[in-house]
User: Which sequence fits this backbone?
């Protein structure tokens, strides 16, 4: 289902492309200024952060408009600005940024969702004493993420990628005084680092293979035909070309960042951070960076694919991406069913949806994966912020069993949350989630390699509808089972929810089969509206299957949980029915325990070995050297005291005696001197005479 | 016995007298006079060796002697100056009394 993409060659970068760097730079500078502010300067910090991101949003809109204008004139815009960063001999390391449909769409999404979440944060974090620090980190994150988006160089992308990882660490551990938050921050940082090591290897390999890390450089970039041809000609072993191997390495980095199995373990724990962080970083933007990365290096991932009647076939790298994505989707959805923490359910849902995006990229190409990314960013940010609103209103309670009946107490939150839920479930026609998920299922259905991913994704979709219904039933229906009295959140929090809810619905309009505007825009082909696409039997079949998925999922969920729960301590319906599998799922299928028993246990053992070596072997050696040195010093002291000093003292004494003797000659009587002089002369003369004889 | 030997004998005698005077006298002025005698013995030798040497026509020896006399005159002036200075301080010209430079 992948369409061959053709872009017009690079034209001179326009004014907006020239100043594209301002989009990430302004929030980063704002973050630096906020870092210098004093803690009570809350209003200044929030104004700076929101103002800078608002400025970035305006610029991003302008950039998007520029790309749109170029596209409507029939030319797909791809403008790059490159410059040399470091020169080693004759090798250049270039950095640069790129403005094309992909980066333009991401820029607008990140700045827009980010801005809403910033505004929401001013309400959510209103009582936190580290308000300014929070906005400093948030602003730095936004800048770094925008840097990832505009990067035209894998190296620049990697730098921003790591900055994003750093801010993620800082924000997960924002409440560092909670041990669980500190541990989650460390876990997130180290797990993503595993992926990043592979990513870095891929970068190095790509650089040695093509001599450049720029994506597009007027024909000389690493994502362009010449370089890719060279990489395809190299064999990396195991039947892979160099292009495929590099693609897999980069995918490992993307899997770490986007929480793909088996590196997904950090993402649910990352929910220890403040809820706006979960919404911004761990749902809408940062975790999508992995998906975006795959979309960005898509030419590399799909290099060597055979054409089948105008559609690209698949490659090893894309196949791996597909299988990992599909497996992650099912795996995480299963776990999400049995979780009780409102944010944890959403976290596993995010992992699953990222799996969908990966699968969409693997089977359907850039547009399919990216459409789900954008749609998901809106409705998942909405859900997380809704969850934050619920937590806020329910007095910091996160356990869904201890909520209930909130629909009447929090009407705005309930309404928007319901829209987000329906979008995530993929309720047909009305919601953006349907159109984006539908596109993925459609491409999975048409995938030539195997039909199994299709069924996996369908199963995942049923589970999604099921666990979201379970969550909404627990939270908003039934009786209030918590403590205190729940209250609606302030306007500053509900307004962003309403705006996001609008987009969760409206975004679907740009990705329908009848008017595939988004896909055409990304692929740089003219968009044509054709209402007959709605009448095609294949699509109607998919629509029907989607209806069945949603009805089964939501129906089952409502049947089991709707208005049922009355007691926070009562066991879950499914738990009562099947305690053992429920326990497995609730314990997250023991992935953490598996890591604990293997990787962490190995490192623990290794640390013990190193500790023993340190203490016994290296420490012993150091001690021995120290003891020997001490011994040598002792010997030296003895020699000094007895031999050297003695000899010196004796010599001095002798000199003194000799001097005393000699000084007697110096009587001060001139004539006695003269006498000695005369005796000397006589002696000399005598010697002279005798030597002559 | 050629004339040179005679001169040399006279010079040696003169030197010995001068040396004896310089070593035995206690009066600083008399020691100076002894030194002058030794110097003049040397001058006599210079003149004698020049006069009976291989190149009597070149005035080398005489030049040497005149320089020596001039230097001796300067030396005598310095010496007498020292003696006067010492006499002012110590009210004596006895050399044995002047042992303040004893080590």
Assistant:
């Amino acid at each position: 289902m992948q369409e061959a993409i053709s872009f017009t060659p690079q034209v001179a970068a326009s004014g907006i492309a020239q100043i594209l760097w301002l989009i990430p730079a302004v929030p980063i500078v704002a973050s630096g200024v906020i870092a210098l502010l004093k803690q009570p300067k809350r209003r200044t910090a929030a104004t700076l952060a929101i103002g800078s991101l608002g400025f970035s949003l305006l610029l991003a809109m302008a950039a998007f408009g520029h790309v749109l204008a170029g596209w409507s004139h029939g030319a797909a815009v791809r403008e790059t600005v490159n410059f040399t960063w470091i020169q080693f001999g004759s090798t250049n390391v270039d950095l640069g940024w790129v403005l094309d449909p992909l980066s333009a769409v991401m820029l607008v999404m990140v700045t827009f969702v980010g801005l809403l979440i910033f505004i929401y944060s001013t309400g959510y974090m209103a009582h936190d004493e580290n308000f300014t620090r929070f906005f400093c980190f948030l602003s730095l994150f936004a800048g770094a993420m925008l840097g990832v988006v505009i990067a035209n160089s894998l190296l620049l992308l990697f730098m921003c990628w790591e900055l994003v990882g750093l801010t993620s660490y800082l924000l997960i551990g924002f409440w560092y005084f909670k041990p669980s938050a500190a541990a989650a921050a460390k876990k997130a940082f180290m797990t993503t680092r595993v992926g990043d090591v592979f990513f870095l290897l891929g970068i190095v390999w790509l650089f040695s293979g093509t001599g450049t890390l720029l994506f597009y450089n007027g024909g000389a970039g690493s994502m362009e035909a010449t370089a890719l041809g060279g990489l395809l000609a190299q064999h990396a072993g195991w039947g892979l070309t160099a292009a495929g191997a590099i693609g897999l390495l980069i995918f490992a980095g993307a899997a770490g960042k986007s929480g793909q199995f088996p590196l997904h373990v950090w993402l649910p724990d990352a929910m220890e951070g403040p809820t706006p962080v979960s919404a911004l970083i761990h749902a809408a933007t940062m975790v999508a960076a992995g998906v975006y990365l795959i979309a960005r290096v898509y030419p590399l991932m799909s290099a060597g694919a055979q054409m089948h009647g105008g559609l690209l076939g698949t490659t090893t790298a894309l196949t791996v991406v597909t299988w990992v994505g599909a497996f992650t989707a099912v795996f995480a959805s299963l776990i999400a069913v049995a979780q009780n923490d409102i944010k944890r359910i959403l976290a596993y849902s995010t992992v699953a949806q990222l799996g969908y995006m990966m699968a969409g990229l693997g089977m359907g190409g850039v547009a399919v994966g990216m459409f789900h990314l954008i749609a998901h960013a809106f409705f998942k940010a909405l859900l997380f912020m809704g969850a934050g609103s619920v937590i806020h209103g329910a007095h910091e309670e996160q356990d869904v069993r201890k909520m209930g009946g909130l629909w009447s107490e929090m009407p705005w939150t309930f309404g928007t949350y319901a829209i987000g839920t329906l979008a995530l479930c993929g309720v047909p026609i009305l919601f953006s989630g349907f159109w984006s998920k539908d596109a993925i299922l459609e491409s999975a259905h048409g995938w030539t390699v195997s039909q199994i991913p299709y069924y996996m994704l369908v199963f995942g979709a049923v589970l999604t509808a099921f666990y979201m219904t379970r969550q909404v039933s627990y939270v908003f229906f039934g009786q209030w089972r918590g403590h205190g009295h729940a209250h609606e959140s302030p306007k500053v929090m509900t307004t962003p929810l309403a705006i996001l809810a609008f987009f969760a619905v409206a975004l679907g309009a740009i990705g329908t089969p009848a008017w595939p505007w988004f896909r055409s825009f990304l692929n740089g082909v003219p968009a044509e509206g054709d209402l007959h696409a709605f009448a095609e039997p294949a699509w109607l079949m998919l629509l029907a299957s989607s209806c069945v998925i949603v009805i089964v999922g939501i129906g089952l969920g409502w049947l089991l949980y709707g208005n049922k729960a009355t007691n926070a301590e009562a066991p879950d319906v499914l738990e009562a029915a099947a305690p053992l599998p429920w326990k497995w799922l609730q314990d997250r299928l023991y992935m953490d325990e598996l890591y604990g028993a293997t990787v962490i246990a190995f490192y623990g053992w290794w640390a013990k070995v190193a500790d023993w070596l340190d203490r016994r072997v290296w420490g012993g050696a150091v001690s021995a050297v120290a003891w020997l040195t001490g011994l040598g010093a002792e010997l030296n002291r003895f020699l000094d005291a007895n031999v050297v000093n003695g000899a010196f003292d004796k010599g001095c004494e002798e000199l003194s005696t000799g001097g005393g003797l000699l000084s007697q000659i110096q009587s001060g009587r001139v004539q006695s001197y003269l006498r000695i002089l005369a005796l000397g002369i006589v002696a000399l003369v005598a010697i002279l005479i005798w030597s002559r004889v | 016995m050629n004339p040179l030997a005679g001169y040399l004998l006279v010079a040696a005698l003169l030197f010995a007298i001068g040396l004896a005077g310089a070593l035995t006298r206690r009066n600083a002025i008399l020691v100076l006079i002894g030194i002058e005698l030794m110097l003049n013995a040397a001058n006599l030798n210079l003149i004698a060796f020049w006069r009976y040497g291989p190149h009597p026509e070149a005035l080398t020896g005489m030049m040497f002697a005149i320089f020596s006399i001039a230097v001796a005159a300067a030396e005598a002036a310095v010496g007498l100056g020292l003696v006067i200075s010492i006499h002012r301080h110590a009210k004596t010209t006895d050399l044995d009394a002047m042992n303040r430079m004893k080590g």
